[in-house]
Input
Amino acid sequence: MNKLTSYTIKEVHRAYRDKLLTPTSFVDLCLQKVRQTSELNAFVNITEDVAENHAIDSEKRFYIDKKIKPLDGITIAIKDNFCTKNVTTTCASEMLRNFVPTYDATVYAKLINNGACLIGKSNLDEFAMGSGTVDSIFGPTRNPWGYNGETDWRIAGGSSGGSAVAVSSGACIAAIGSDTGGSTRNPAALCGVVGIKPTYGLVSRYGLIPLVNSMDVPGILARNIDDAAEILNCIAGQDDLDSTTIKRKYQPIEIQENFNLSNLRIGIPSEYYCEGMSEEVIDTWRWVADLLENEKVLLKSVTLPHTSVSIAVYSILNQCEVASNMARYDGLEFGLRTNEDYSTEELYASSRSQGFNNVVRSRIFAGNYFLLTRNYEKYFLKALKLRRLIANDFNNVFNGDNRVDLLLTPTTLSDAPLYGDFVSKHNRDQCALQDYCTQPANMAGIPAVSIPIRLSKTTTTTEILSKLNISIDALPQKCQELLKLVACNQLEVDIDQLDPVAISLQQSLQISRKLNEEYEILKLKHKNTELQTQIDRNSKFLDNLRKELNCSRCSLASQTPNPENIQDHIKQMKQRVLSYEESCNKATMKFSKLSVPDSVLPKALQAQLSALNTLHEEVVDWRQRADDVVFTRDAREMFNRLRR
Amino acid sequence: MKYIGVTNHLKKCTKVISIKRDHSTTTNEKLQSVVGLEVHAQLNTQSKLFSGAQNTFGGLVNNCVSLFDAAIPGTLPVLNRKCVELGILTALALSCKVNEVSSFDRKHYFYADLPAGYQITQQRAPLASDGVINFQVFTPGVHKKPYNKSSKIKQIQLEQDSGKSLHDSDLKRSLVDLNRAGAPLIELVFEPDLEDGEEAAALVKELLLIVQRLGACTGRMEEGALRVDANVSLRRYGEPLSTRTEIKNIGSVRGVAGAIRHEIERQRSVLENGGKIINETRSWDAVNKVTVAMRDKEVVQDYRYMPEPNLPPLRVNLYTREETQDVLSVPLIKDRIPELPEDSRKKLIEQFSLRPEVAIQLVNEPVLLNYFHELTLGNTRSPTKVANLLLNDLLTVLNKRKFDVEDCVITIRQIRELTDMLLNKHINLDICRKVLDELLDSANNTSPLDIITKKEWSIVTDEEEITKRCTEVIENNPKLVKQYKDGKVKVFKALLGILAKNTSNKIDMSIAAAKMEEILKKL
Output
C-alpha cells in the first residue's frame, strides 16, 4: 500500500496500463493516506469530490478514449495561494478565509488539462510570509520525518510546507508550491523531496496570490527529478495573462539516462560557506562535491561577492512589494469585512487589523516606510541597485571564459529545526537564516533545484524509520535513487563512505590559510612602507632643526656680545656699575653737607600762610563792624533830625 | 561666539520681516497670473487599459468589470495594444518625442473606488514627452481679434481611471461603480505657459478637436471623457513661480475659462488683503461660479510610488515600419495622422478667403465645418455667405433652442436646398431662419421648399403681382406720393416699408423697389 503511493509517474501509468491500479482507486488510496496523516496538517482543504471527478475523467480517457494525457490519474496538491475556481483559496489568512475564486490559476488549469487530480489545497504561512509553515490560521504543518506524535516535532519548512509534507508523506505524487525567497526549496530540503524553482517567467504567475511579484515563481515538489521534470513540462510556457512570462517557446526537458558529466563545470560559491551552517550540512556539501569530482566534473571555487548583502536587500524589496500588494485587501470587493460603519477609513482599519497577522502587518508597515518619498532613494532604490549587482554576480559566474554551468550549494543551513526552537525566534530572523542560501536565486531570477542527498543523523534512528514504515533495507536504496539523479543515474554509491571529503576540506583550509597569510604579509608590507615614510619625514625634520641651530650659532658669533665674550662684558658692566655707585655716594655726601635756611622749609611757609588767613578774616570782621558803626551813626542823626 | 551667533540670527529675522513688508506693500503692483493645465483624456477603445472588460460610458452599474478591475487577488495586468497606439498617435499629433522605452508605476492611495489601493500610471518614464500645442485664442465678445498662443507639453502618460463613488448622505452609505475602474486614460501635463482662463479654454478646445480628429477620445466632456485640472498662481513680473492652487476635474470648456478667471480673482484679492496663498486642491462649482477648497484633499498625500513589477517596460520601434506582437512601429502610426485643425483653418483662410475668426469658429464646430465643405463643393456658392449662414443663422437658431451643434438633425440635402433658395433670393434671411427652426422638428426627409409652400412663406417675384401691390400702396397713400413728387425722395423708403408690411415680408424687395420707382416716375 505504502509502496504504491511512493511510485513515480511512469510507474503509476504502467500500473494503470497493466490494470494493477485505476485512477479512481489510486485517488482513493491517496485520500486514505491524507486521512491517515491528518495529524501532520498538510492540507487546509481536502477536495475529495474534485479529485474523484478528475479521476473519473482520467479513467475514461485511459480505458475508453485511449487518449492518455501526461498527468492522467496523477494526484497533486496545490498550495492554498493559487486560485482554484469554486474551491476556497485562503492564503492561510483570516482575510481570505471565505474567499472562493471564480477563476483558475494558469498553473492549476494546465495541470487539470493534462489530467491531474486535485487532492487538496495545502497549508502555508499566511500569504506565504515565512519559512516554517508555522504562521497559518489553520495551525502549523508538521514534518513527517522524526514525527512520533510527541509534543515537540520538527518544522516542515516553508512557506510551501504543506505541499512538501503532502508529497513526502505520500498523499500525492507531486505538489505545487510558490517560491519567493526559497519557499519551495526550503521545505523540500527539510522534508526530503525534490524542489524546483523554475526561471522567473518560465511558469505563469496568473492566479498566484502575490507575495513579491518580481520574485514569485510557482515551484514544484516531487519525490524525484523525473516526476518534477514531467510536471514542469506541463505547466511551463508563455501565458497571455501574465506579461512577465518568457515569450520564447518552451522546450520540454528530457532527462537522459546516460550523459557525460565530464563536460560539466560546477562552481562552488565560497560566500555560501557561512556562519551558522551546521557541520553536517558542510560535510554533505563536500561529499557531493567529491562525488561529482570523481565523475570527472570540473569543480571550481567561484565568488558571488554580494551574497552577504542579499538577505537585507531581499527583505527591503519583499516588504515594499508586500505593502503595495496588500493594499487591495480593504474588505470592499472581497475578503474579510468587519461591521465597522463609522467611516470607510475605520472599516479599512478594522478589517485589515483583524484580517492580517502580525507578520503581515509588520511587513506592510515597514514596506510603506521604505516607499515614502523621502525614503525611496535611501532604501528602495538602493536595494534595486544592489539587486542588479547580485544578479550580475550570477551573470559573471555563468558567462565569460571562466564560466561554470551549475552552482552547487546547500539549500538550508541545517536540518529541520524543532518547532519549539523555531518559534522562539522572530519571523524576520527565521527567514534571514532559512533563506540565506535560497533567496539570491530569486533576486537574479535564475532556476534552482533542491535535491535530497542524505538523511540527517539526528533523525535517522531505526525507531523513526519504522514508525514511518520505511524498512532499513530500503534506506540506502532510496538515497541511492536520489543520488543517481544527481549524478545522472550513473553511480552506485555507498553513502557511508565519507572520507574523500576530508581532502577537499583540507584543500580549502589550506587555500584559506594561504590567503590569510598573504593578506597578513601584505598588511605588514603596507605598515612597513608607512613606517619608512614616517622615519624619512622625521629625519628630514631633524636635519632642518640642525641647520637652523647652526645658522643661529653663526649669527650669534658675529654679534657683540656673543656667548664667548659675555663674561668679560658682564665684568666690565659690573665694574661700571660699581664706579657709578661710588660717584653716587659721593654726591649724596656732598649734598647732605649743604645747609638749608628755615624760611625756605615748607613748615615755616605753612605757618605764614595760616597767619595770613586769620588776618584776612579779621579784616573782613573789622570792615563789617565799621559798616555797622556808620549805619548806627546815620540812624542816630536821622532820629535827632526828626525829633527836631 | 555665541553672542555673534545670536546677532546674526537677529539680522536674519529683520531681513525676513523687511521682505514681508516689501511683499505686502507691493501687492498693489501688477501681478501676473500663471496657468498650467493637466488634462486627462479617456481613450476611445473597445476594452480597458489592462483588462478585457468593455470600455463604455453609461453601462449597467458594475457590469463592465473584469476580475482584474475589481483587484481580485492573483489577477495580472495585460497592456492593451490599442491604448498604446492611440496614446502614441496623440503624442505625435502634438509633436511629442515618443520614448523608446517607457515604464509603469504604482501610485498608492486608499479610496473606495480604487480597488487595488494603487493606480497604475507612468510617473518615472512616460510614453512621450516634450511636445507643443499651437492654438488661436478667440472668444467672440472677449477678444476683438484672434491671437496665436502655444503651450509646451511636459509629458504624456498612460494610466488607469478610477471607479466612481456615490455618496448617499441620507442613508450614510457610499456606493461604488467599477465600470470606469481601469478605463484607459492619457494624462497630458502642460507647462505653465498660459496667462488666463480664456487661453486655457482655447487650449482645451483645440485639444478636444485634435483628439476627436484622431479618434483617440470622444471628447465628450459632459461624460467625463476629457477632464481638466488647472494649476493657478500669481507672481510679480519676472519673478519665479509662487505657491499655486489646483482646480480639479473641470468638466467643460467654458468651465475652464470660468474657474480659472474666478481663481485668479480670488487669489488676487487674498494677496491684496495681505493674505497668503496656500497650496491646496479646489473644485469648480459650476452653478455658483466659485472655486471651493476640497476637504478630503487637505492632507498632503505621499503616493509611495513604486515600479509596477507585473508589467515589463514598454518598448516601441521609433525608426522602421516593422511591427511585432509586442513592439509597435511609431512611423506606421505617424502615417495615420489625419488633417489637424490648424491645417483646416489655414486651408479655409487660403482657399476660401475666409477671415481668421470665421475660420476658427467653423473649425471649432465639426458639424458646421462639414456643412461648409459640402455646400462649397463645386464652387457654386459664395464661401463667405455660406459661412455666415452657418455661423450666424443656423447657430442662432440652435442656441435659441439650446441645442448642441452635435445634435443638429438637418441633413446636407436640406441645408443645400435652403442655402440655394436664400442665395437665389427666393426667400429672405428672416424666412430662412424660420425654415431652419422648422427643420429641427421635422423628419429628415422634409424638403425646405415643402415647408415654405405649406406655410406660404415663399417670396413673390411675379412682376404682375408686384405691380399690383405697388399700385395699391400708391393709391392708398396719396400724401406720401405727393411729398415724393415734391422732391422728398426720403419717403420712398416709407412707401417700401408699407409695401413690406402689407405683404408680410413675402415679396422680393429688390424687384419691388424697382417697380415702385418705375410706377412713381410714370405718375
